[in-house]
Amino acid sequence: MRTGFFWDERTFWHAGGNYAGTMPIGGLVQPLAAGSLPESPETKRRLKNLMDITGLTDTLDKRTAPEATREDLLRVHPDSYLDAFKATSDTGGGEIGHHAPFAQGGYEIATLSAGLAIAAVRAVASGDLDNAYSLSRPPGHHCEPDSPMGFCLLANIPIAIETAKAEGLIKRAVVLDWDVHHGNGTEAMYYGRDDVLTISLHQEGNYPLETGKLHDRGTGAGEGFNLNLPLPAGMGHEGYLHALDTIVIPQIKAFAPDIIIVACGYDCAAPDPLGSMLAMAQTFGAMTARIKQTATEICDGKLVVVHEGGYSEVYVPFCGHAVLQEMSGSDIHAADPMHKALSNRQPNPRVLAFQKQLIDDMATELGL
After folding, report:
1. How many CA atoms lie within 13 A of 180 on its CB side?
2. What is the rounded CA–CA span in Å between residue 356 and residue 346?
3. Is there a catalytic annotation at residue 142?
4. Tens digit of pLDDT for each residue in 305-340?
5. Histone deacetylase domain: from which residue to which, for each copy (predicted)?
6. Please, what are the domains in the chain?
7. Which residue from 143, 22, 40 is spatially nearest to 85, judged by alpha carbons?
8. Which member of 14, 77, 141, 142 is catalytic?
9. What φ, ψ does residue 116 adopt, rounded to 5°?
10. In degrees rounded to 5, what are phi and psi of residue 289?
Protein backbone atom coordinates (compact mmCIF):
# COMPACT_ATOMS: atom_id res chain seq x y z
CA MET A 1 0.00 0.00 0.00
CA ARG A 2 1.10 3.56 -0.69
CA THR A 3 0.16 5.09 2.64
CA GLY A 4 0.92 8.75 3.25
CA PHE A 5 1.74 10.17 6.67
CA PHE A 6 1.25 13.93 6.85
CA TRP A 7 2.74 15.69 9.85
CA ASP A 8 4.73 18.74 10.85
CA GLU A 9 6.68 19.44 14.04
CA ARG A 10 5.22 22.94 14.16
CA THR A 11 1.75 21.58 15.01
CA PHE A 12 3.19 20.19 18.25
CA TRP A 13 4.00 23.78 19.26
CA HIS A 14 0.34 24.79 19.49
CA ALA A 15 -0.29 25.89 23.09
CA GLY A 16 -3.52 26.14 25.04
CA GLY A 17 -4.41 28.73 27.62
CA ASN A 18 -4.49 29.06 31.36
CA TYR A 19 -6.23 25.77 32.13
CA ALA A 20 -5.88 22.86 34.52
CA GLY A 21 -7.38 20.03 32.54
CA THR A 22 -10.73 21.30 31.26
CA MET A 23 -11.12 23.88 34.06
CA PRO A 24 -9.93 27.49 33.76
CA ILE A 25 -7.43 28.37 36.50
CA GLY A 26 -8.78 30.66 39.19
CA GLY A 27 -10.68 30.51 42.44
CA LEU A 28 -10.04 27.08 43.91
CA VAL A 29 -8.59 25.60 40.67
CA GLN A 30 -4.81 25.40 41.07
CA PRO A 31 -2.39 25.52 38.13
CA LEU A 32 -0.89 22.21 37.07
CA ALA A 33 2.81 21.58 37.62
CA ALA A 34 3.12 20.84 33.91
CA GLY A 35 0.81 21.20 30.94
CA SER A 36 -2.58 22.85 30.65
CA LEU A 37 -5.27 21.47 28.37
CA PRO A 38 -5.68 17.69 28.01
CA GLU A 39 -5.11 18.31 24.28
CA SER A 40 -1.36 17.90 24.66
CA PRO A 41 1.29 17.66 21.94
CA GLU A 42 2.67 14.58 23.68
CA THR A 43 -0.07 12.24 22.51
CA LYS A 44 0.83 13.00 18.88
CA ARG A 45 4.58 13.30 19.40
CA ARG A 46 4.74 9.98 21.23
CA LEU A 47 2.78 8.30 18.42
CA LYS A 48 5.37 9.51 15.91
CA ASN A 49 8.17 8.43 18.28
CA LEU A 50 6.71 4.94 18.66
CA MET A 51 6.42 4.57 14.90
CA ASP A 52 10.04 5.67 14.52
CA ILE A 53 11.21 3.11 17.05
CA THR A 54 9.27 0.18 15.56
CA GLY A 55 10.26 1.12 12.02
CA LEU A 56 6.69 1.71 10.83
CA THR A 57 7.51 5.32 9.90
CA ASP A 58 10.05 4.10 7.35
CA THR A 59 7.34 2.15 5.48
CA LEU A 60 5.19 5.26 4.99
CA ASP A 61 5.35 8.13 2.51
CA LYS A 62 6.17 10.97 4.94
CA ARG A 63 5.09 14.44 3.87
CA THR A 64 4.31 17.88 5.21
CA ALA A 65 2.10 20.51 3.60
CA PRO A 66 1.65 24.27 3.31
CA GLU A 67 -0.81 26.17 5.46
CA ALA A 68 -4.39 26.26 4.23
CA THR A 69 -4.98 29.43 2.25
CA ARG A 70 -7.57 32.07 3.02
CA GLU A 71 -9.51 30.84 -0.01
CA ASP A 72 -9.50 27.31 1.42
CA LEU A 73 -10.75 28.51 4.80
CA LEU A 74 -13.49 30.72 3.37
CA ARG A 75 -15.23 27.68 1.89
CA VAL A 76 -16.18 26.79 5.47
CA HIS A 77 -15.55 29.76 7.78
CA PRO A 78 -16.81 33.36 7.31
CA ASP A 79 -14.48 36.36 7.14
CA SER A 80 -15.74 37.59 10.49
CA TYR A 81 -14.53 34.50 12.33
CA LEU A 82 -11.20 34.29 10.52
CA ASP A 83 -10.52 37.99 11.15
CA ALA A 84 -11.27 37.68 14.87
CA PHE A 85 -9.13 34.54 15.17
CA LYS A 86 -6.18 36.12 13.33
CA ALA A 87 -6.35 39.39 15.28
CA THR A 88 -6.41 37.59 18.63
CA SER A 89 -3.60 35.30 17.55
CA ASP A 90 -1.44 38.22 16.44
CA THR A 91 -1.87 40.05 19.76
CA GLY A 92 -0.86 37.31 22.17
CA GLY A 93 -3.60 34.73 21.83
CA GLY A 94 -6.65 34.10 23.97
CA GLU A 95 -10.01 32.40 23.74
CA ILE A 96 -12.88 33.39 21.46
CA GLY A 97 -14.98 30.25 21.83
CA HIS A 98 -15.75 27.52 24.35
CA HIS A 99 -12.75 25.55 25.67
CA ALA A 100 -10.65 26.46 22.63
CA PRO A 101 -7.76 28.68 23.79
CA PHE A 102 -4.62 29.37 21.77
CA ALA A 103 -1.35 31.22 22.13
CA GLN A 104 0.26 33.81 19.85
CA GLY A 105 0.67 32.29 16.40
CA GLY A 106 -2.20 29.89 16.98
CA TYR A 107 -3.88 30.99 13.76
CA GLU A 108 -0.91 29.96 11.61
CA ILE A 109 -0.55 26.61 13.38
CA ALA A 110 -4.27 25.91 12.94
CA THR A 111 -4.04 26.71 9.22
CA LEU A 112 -1.11 24.28 9.00
CA SER A 113 -3.20 21.60 10.72
CA ALA A 114 -5.95 22.16 8.15
CA GLY A 115 -3.33 22.21 5.39
CA LEU A 116 -2.15 18.73 6.36
CA ALA A 117 -5.72 17.43 6.05
CA ILE A 118 -6.13 19.16 2.68
CA ALA A 119 -2.94 17.62 1.35
CA ALA A 120 -3.86 14.14 2.59
CA VAL A 121 -7.31 14.26 0.97
CA ARG A 122 -5.91 15.73 -2.24
CA ALA A 123 -3.22 13.04 -2.53
CA VAL A 124 -5.68 10.20 -2.03
CA ALA A 125 -8.50 11.67 -4.12
CA SER A 126 -6.11 12.26 -7.03
CA GLY A 127 -4.66 8.73 -6.86
CA ASP A 128 -1.21 9.90 -5.80
CA LEU A 129 -1.56 7.76 -2.64
CA ASP A 130 -3.78 4.79 -1.83
CA ASN A 131 -4.65 6.11 1.62
CA ALA A 132 -3.26 8.66 4.07
CA TYR A 133 -3.10 9.70 7.70
CA SER A 134 -3.07 13.37 8.72
CA LEU A 135 -1.57 14.00 12.17
CA SER A 136 -3.48 17.25 12.47
CA ARG A 137 -3.18 19.42 15.58
CA PRO A 138 -5.14 21.32 16.77
CA PRO A 139 -8.08 19.01 16.02
CA GLY A 140 -11.17 20.17 14.16
CA HIS A 141 -14.38 18.20 14.55
CA HIS A 142 -15.97 20.48 17.18
CA CYS A 143 -15.27 23.73 15.34
CA GLU A 144 -18.41 25.20 13.81
CA PRO A 145 -18.29 27.61 10.87
CA ASP A 146 -18.39 30.74 13.03
CA SER A 147 -17.11 29.52 16.39
CA PRO A 148 -14.29 27.36 17.82
CA MET A 149 -14.95 24.97 20.68
CA GLY A 150 -13.63 21.87 22.41
CA PHE A 151 -9.92 22.40 21.59
CA CYS A 152 -10.85 22.79 17.87
CA LEU A 153 -10.00 26.02 16.04
CA LEU A 154 -10.65 25.24 12.37
CA ALA A 155 -12.88 22.58 10.78
CA ASN A 156 -10.02 20.57 9.29
CA ILE A 157 -12.06 17.86 7.56
CA PRO A 158 -14.76 20.07 6.00
CA ILE A 159 -12.03 22.44 4.77
CA ALA A 160 -10.26 19.50 3.12
CA ILE A 161 -13.48 18.17 1.60
CA GLU A 162 -14.55 21.52 0.20
CA THR A 163 -11.11 22.11 -1.28
CA ALA A 164 -11.15 18.70 -2.97
CA LYS A 165 -14.64 19.41 -4.31
CA ALA A 166 -13.56 22.83 -5.62
CA GLU A 167 -10.64 21.17 -7.41
CA GLY A 168 -12.95 18.62 -9.04
CA LEU A 169 -11.38 15.67 -7.23
CA ILE A 170 -14.50 14.40 -5.45
CA LYS A 171 -18.25 14.90 -5.48
CA ARG A 172 -19.44 12.81 -2.54
CA ALA A 173 -17.73 11.98 0.74
CA VAL A 174 -18.42 10.11 3.97
CA VAL A 175 -17.09 11.42 7.28
CA LEU A 176 -17.04 8.70 9.92
CA ASP A 177 -16.28 10.12 13.36
CA TRP A 178 -15.42 7.61 16.11
CA ASP A 179 -14.07 10.16 18.58
CA VAL A 180 -15.74 9.70 22.00
CA HIS A 181 -17.25 13.19 21.64
CA HIS A 182 -19.93 14.10 19.12
CA GLY A 183 -18.60 15.68 15.92
CA ASN A 184 -20.90 18.69 16.14
CA GLY A 185 -18.78 20.95 13.94
CA THR A 186 -18.78 18.55 11.00
CA GLU A 187 -22.50 17.96 11.49
CA ALA A 188 -23.19 21.71 11.47
CA MET A 189 -21.37 22.13 8.17
CA TYR A 190 -23.30 19.42 6.33
CA TYR A 191 -26.64 19.21 8.16
CA GLY A 192 -28.58 20.63 5.23
CA ARG A 193 -26.63 18.93 2.41
CA ASP A 194 -26.85 15.56 0.69
CA ASP A 195 -23.34 15.37 -0.82
CA VAL A 196 -21.61 14.42 2.45
CA LEU A 197 -22.83 11.65 4.75
CA THR A 198 -21.78 12.39 8.32
CA ILE A 199 -21.72 9.55 10.87
CA SER A 200 -20.77 10.03 14.51
CA LEU A 201 -20.27 7.24 17.06
CA HIS A 202 -19.90 8.91 20.44
CA GLN A 203 -20.50 8.42 24.14
CA GLU A 204 -24.00 9.54 25.05
CA GLY A 205 -24.06 12.44 27.48
CA ASN A 206 -20.46 13.45 26.91
CA TYR A 207 -19.26 16.73 25.40
CA PRO A 208 -21.06 18.62 23.91
CA LEU A 209 -24.20 17.89 25.88
CA GLU A 210 -26.71 19.54 23.58
CA THR A 211 -25.83 17.78 20.30
CA GLY A 212 -25.48 14.29 18.89
CA LYS A 213 -29.02 13.02 19.42
CA LEU A 214 -30.20 9.85 17.67
CA HIS A 215 -33.01 11.55 15.77
CA ASP A 216 -30.91 14.47 14.49
CA ARG A 217 -30.91 13.26 10.89
CA GLY A 218 -30.41 16.45 8.88
CA THR A 219 -32.75 19.00 7.40
CA GLY A 220 -33.95 19.95 3.93
CA ALA A 221 -31.78 18.35 1.26
CA GLY A 222 -29.67 16.86 4.04
CA GLU A 223 -32.46 14.94 5.73
CA GLY A 224 -31.27 11.37 6.24
CA PHE A 225 -27.63 12.20 5.55
CA ASN A 226 -26.62 12.80 9.18
CA LEU A 227 -26.37 9.76 11.43
CA ASN A 228 -25.67 9.90 15.17
CA LEU A 229 -25.14 6.80 17.27
CA PRO A 230 -24.98 7.88 20.93
CA LEU A 231 -23.49 4.85 22.68
CA PRO A 232 -23.74 4.06 26.40
CA ALA A 233 -20.73 4.38 28.66
CA GLY A 234 -18.78 1.13 28.90
CA MET A 235 -19.07 0.20 25.23
CA GLY A 236 -16.16 -2.11 24.47
CA HIS A 237 -14.42 -3.79 21.56
CA GLU A 238 -17.24 -6.05 20.37
CA GLY A 239 -19.86 -3.33 20.77
CA TYR A 240 -17.99 -0.92 18.53
CA LEU A 241 -17.51 -3.57 15.87
CA HIS A 242 -21.20 -4.49 16.04
CA ALA A 243 -22.15 -0.86 15.43
CA LEU A 244 -19.88 -0.74 12.41
CA ASP A 245 -21.06 -4.04 10.98
CA THR A 246 -24.81 -3.57 11.46
CA ILE A 247 -25.31 0.17 10.85
CA VAL A 248 -22.25 2.14 9.77
CA ILE A 249 -20.83 0.05 6.94
CA PRO A 250 -24.22 -0.67 5.29
CA GLN A 251 -24.98 3.07 5.32
CA ILE A 252 -21.59 3.91 3.81
CA LYS A 253 -22.10 1.35 1.05
CA ALA A 254 -25.59 2.64 0.30
CA PHE A 255 -24.27 6.19 0.00
CA ALA A 256 -21.44 5.13 -2.36
CA PRO A 257 -18.97 8.00 -1.72
CA ASP A 258 -15.89 8.91 -3.73
CA ILE A 259 -13.81 8.88 -0.55
CA ILE A 260 -14.14 7.91 3.12
CA ILE A 261 -12.63 10.20 5.75
CA VAL A 262 -12.34 9.08 9.37
CA ALA A 263 -12.32 11.65 12.15
CA CYS A 264 -10.10 9.51 14.33
CA GLY A 265 -10.26 10.27 18.02
CA TYR A 266 -8.67 7.82 20.43
CA ASP A 267 -10.57 9.04 23.48
CA CYS A 268 -12.97 6.09 23.43
CA ALA A 269 -10.00 3.99 24.58
CA ALA A 270 -10.39 2.63 28.09
CA PRO A 271 -7.54 4.62 29.72
CA ASP A 272 -8.67 8.00 28.38
CA PRO A 273 -9.40 10.66 31.03
CA LEU A 274 -12.19 12.34 29.03
CA GLY A 275 -14.20 9.27 28.09
CA SER A 276 -15.83 6.29 29.77
CA MET A 277 -15.61 3.70 27.01
CA LEU A 278 -13.64 0.46 26.86
CA ALA A 279 -12.08 0.40 23.40
CA MET A 280 -8.53 -0.97 23.03
CA ALA A 281 -5.73 -0.53 20.52
CA GLN A 282 -7.04 -3.75 18.97
CA THR A 283 -10.43 -2.05 18.53
CA PHE A 284 -8.97 0.78 16.47
CA GLY A 285 -7.03 -1.66 14.33
CA ALA A 286 -10.13 -3.77 13.72
CA MET A 287 -12.33 -0.76 12.90
CA THR A 288 -9.68 0.51 10.49
CA ALA A 289 -9.47 -2.88 8.78
CA ARG A 290 -13.24 -2.92 8.26
CA ILE A 291 -13.38 0.63 6.88
CA LYS A 292 -10.35 0.02 4.68
CA GLN A 293 -12.08 -3.04 3.19
CA THR A 294 -15.26 -1.03 2.68
CA ALA A 295 -13.28 1.68 0.87
CA THR A 296 -11.70 -1.01 -1.34
CA GLU A 297 -15.15 -2.29 -2.29
CA ILE A 298 -16.84 1.01 -3.08
CA CYS A 299 -14.34 3.80 -3.78
CA ASP A 300 -11.09 2.24 -5.00
CA GLY A 301 -9.68 2.15 -1.47
CA LYS A 302 -9.71 5.94 -1.08
CA LEU A 303 -9.42 6.39 2.68
CA VAL A 304 -8.08 9.30 4.74
CA VAL A 305 -7.74 9.27 8.53
CA VAL A 306 -7.49 12.64 10.29
CA HIS A 307 -6.33 12.72 13.91
CA GLU A 308 -8.80 14.24 16.37
CA GLY A 309 -8.97 13.65 20.15
CA GLY A 310 -7.30 11.20 22.51
CA TYR A 311 -5.74 12.31 25.78
CA SER A 312 -3.83 9.40 27.29
CA GLU A 313 -0.20 10.19 26.50
CA VAL A 314 0.76 6.59 27.27
CA TYR A 315 -1.97 4.78 25.33
CA VAL A 316 -2.78 6.92 22.27
CA PRO A 317 0.50 5.92 20.55
CA PHE A 318 -0.44 2.23 20.59
CA CYS A 319 -3.93 2.97 19.24
CA GLY A 320 -2.53 5.14 16.43
CA HIS A 321 0.14 2.56 15.61
CA ALA A 322 -2.58 -0.09 15.19
CA VAL A 323 -4.48 2.18 12.78
CA LEU A 324 -1.44 2.95 10.64
CA GLN A 325 -0.34 -0.67 10.61
CA GLU A 326 -3.72 -1.65 9.16
CA MET A 327 -3.77 1.23 6.68
CA SER A 328 -0.34 0.37 5.31
CA GLY A 329 -0.72 -3.41 5.42
CA SER A 330 2.51 -3.63 7.41
CA ASP A 331 3.50 -6.56 9.58
CA ILE A 332 5.31 -4.22 11.99
CA HIS A 333 3.41 -4.55 15.26
CA ALA A 334 3.65 -2.56 18.48
CA ALA A 335 2.57 -4.89 21.28
CA ASP A 336 -0.09 -3.27 23.45
CA PRO A 337 1.27 -3.28 27.02
CA MET A 338 -2.25 -2.90 28.42
CA HIS A 339 -3.99 -5.50 26.27
CA LYS A 340 -4.40 -8.17 28.95
CA ALA A 341 -5.63 -5.72 31.57
CA LEU A 342 -8.08 -4.04 29.19
CA SER A 343 -9.32 -7.39 27.85
CA ASN A 344 -10.28 -8.30 31.41
CA ARG A 345 -12.34 -5.10 31.64
CA GLN A 346 -14.47 -5.81 28.57
CA PRO A 347 -18.24 -6.11 29.05
CA ASN A 348 -19.36 -9.53 30.25
CA PRO A 349 -21.64 -11.58 27.95
CA ARG A 350 -24.87 -10.28 29.49
CA VAL A 351 -23.81 -6.63 29.19
CA LEU A 352 -22.51 -7.19 25.65
CA ALA A 353 -25.81 -8.74 24.62
CA PHE A 354 -27.60 -5.67 26.01
CA GLN A 355 -25.26 -3.34 24.11
CA LYS A 356 -25.75 -5.19 20.83
CA GLN A 357 -29.52 -5.17 21.28
CA LEU A 358 -29.41 -1.44 21.96
CA ILE A 359 -27.57 -0.89 18.68
CA ASP A 360 -30.05 -3.10 16.84
CA ASP A 361 -32.90 -1.12 18.40
CA MET A 362 -31.30 2.12 17.17
CA ALA A 363 -31.25 0.74 13.65
CA THR A 364 -34.90 -0.27 13.90
CA GLU A 365 -35.95 3.06 15.37
CA LEU A 366 -34.22 4.91 12.54
CA GLY A 367 -35.65 2.62 9.90
CA LEU A 368 -32.22 1.46 8.73
Report:
1. 26
2. 14
3. yes
4. 999 999 999 999 999 999 999 999 999 999 999 999
5. 38-324
6. 3-13+35-365 (3.40.800.20)
7. 143
8. 142
9. -65, -40
10. -60, -40
